[in-house]
Amino acid sequence: MNRGIGLMSGTSLDGLDICYLEFIDVKNGYNIGKLITQAIPYSEYWLRQLKSAFTMSPGDLEKLDLEYGEYLGEKTKEFIQANNLENKTDFIASHGHTIFHEPNKGFTKQIGAGQMIANICQIKVVSDFRSLDVELGGQGAPLVPIGDKFLFGEYDGCINLGGFSNISFDKNRKRIAFDMSPCNLPLNDICKDHFNQEYDKDGELSKKGKINKELLADLNQLEYYKEQPPKSLGVEWLNSVFNPVLKSYSDEEPINVLTTISEHIAFQISNVVNANDLKRVIFTGGGVYNQFIIDKIKTQINGALIVPDNEIIEFKEALIFAFLGYLRLHNQINTLSSVTGAIRDSSGGVIHLPI
To answer: What pTM value is reported for the model?
Structure first.
């Protein structure tokens, strides 16, 4: 039960990431075998459905849950067949796609019906990794840190630049983790709205703008940055807190807003790295390709910024969700209360057997 597939769909809506690998249990952690990966961009239909899902009625959302589960199942089945993995896959671990995440109100929702995936692929599936932790009073996020600890433990810290930026590291012999700032989401929105681009490729647009110091100060003074972990961010926070600040500067040139947000992201990340004296930090996620932000961080942190090969950059989260599924199936802890703030550690995830 050590050969698995991880499925990941992040808030940036880049697409579906699929990662196949084998876990090898060793004395002080786990080794991972050769990776087989695939990134599948979303069609216009799925971009539209996933982006608007939070406005749907409960009934329509349940239908979308099943439809998206069917989509995940079909794409995973195609991946298995294309790579001759029919008799080499013990399980599938699916993160699903987050529609709601308000743990302080006691709920989180990731769509992508696990039973549908299991039935289509005829392989057991682990899904819904966040709900149990929320029921235990936790944030239900982030979940990746246990993978950081056991699979990437040679680094002092692990940072992912996705829709939001997040970090995990050991402090006082406990793993802690939290979201540091928004990242790709607001940048992508500005690029789509004003520059007819899906994202700021290589950070080339941000390089051309000027920093609005007043806007930068307002963003850096947001209450979230004063809170102590455990804490996490969601699209709801972006819409209700972050974006209204941007709207108050509607007269500013969009390219300057883009540059200022990039500076804000780099500042918040560097602040956390330096405050915790992290010397070797691995950076992954699509935001790593934004050279403007990476260069900004390099000039502001005291330690070394390490960028791994592209496969780890792009598929680390899918890889780690496969690891979470592996731990769940072995009845081992896969969610750390030191990270989420829950009343105890837990082994989260619902197991679906094919029928």
So the answer is: 0.86
